[in-house]
Amino acid sequence: MGLSWLSTLCYSLPFGNGPPSTLYKVLELGGPSNFPIAIIWNSWVLPKVSFFAWEATWSKVLTLDLVRKRGWSMENKCFLCHEEQESIDHVLIHCDKTRFAWHILFSLFGVSWVLPSSMRELLLSWHGSFVGRKRKKVWQAIPLCLLWTIWKERNNRALDNKELSVQGIELIFSCNLWAWSKLFIVSGLSSIVNFVDWLGAL
């Protein structure tokens, strides 16, 4: 028996063998309007990054606050700022180091934006109506790329005791976004400098 109801649902829906995001719209409690499906599950982002963003939006990424809830006795202090308690929203949005990275990103695009309080709100409010079609694809990949870069830096500090400056994090982010863009979105941007200039023209 098990998942027979799910198989029936999958084959009876009009989208047939469509992407997981389409089925997710049907299964997600509260309806698709309450969850940033389009930003998370898009073809311009690596699947492992999409899955990370999905977990982060549900606050299921294993940060120190969740480790403590599971019964482990350890100090809860953010690996990035070493000041506040660690949660997924703190690490990816509210940490001073992270906020600085977001503000550098916004200044590149000439965008003035107050960061929302949660991952879900951040991704739900991420729009790109002011950019062209190719650049919009890049714009939609930007938050997941930065979130992934920040999380990788957090893990480097937590597990390997290696630390980058905020400028170093921004450089890694730019290189990652450039690599994704060349792979999935646009060709002909021969250098990271050309790519950043192209982004600045958004």
UniProtKB/TrEMBL annotation:
InterPro entries: RVT-Znf. This is Reverse transcriptase zinc-binding domain-containing protein. Residues 22-102 form the Reverse transcriptase zinc-binding domain. It holds the Pfam family zf-RVT. It comes from the Eukaryota.
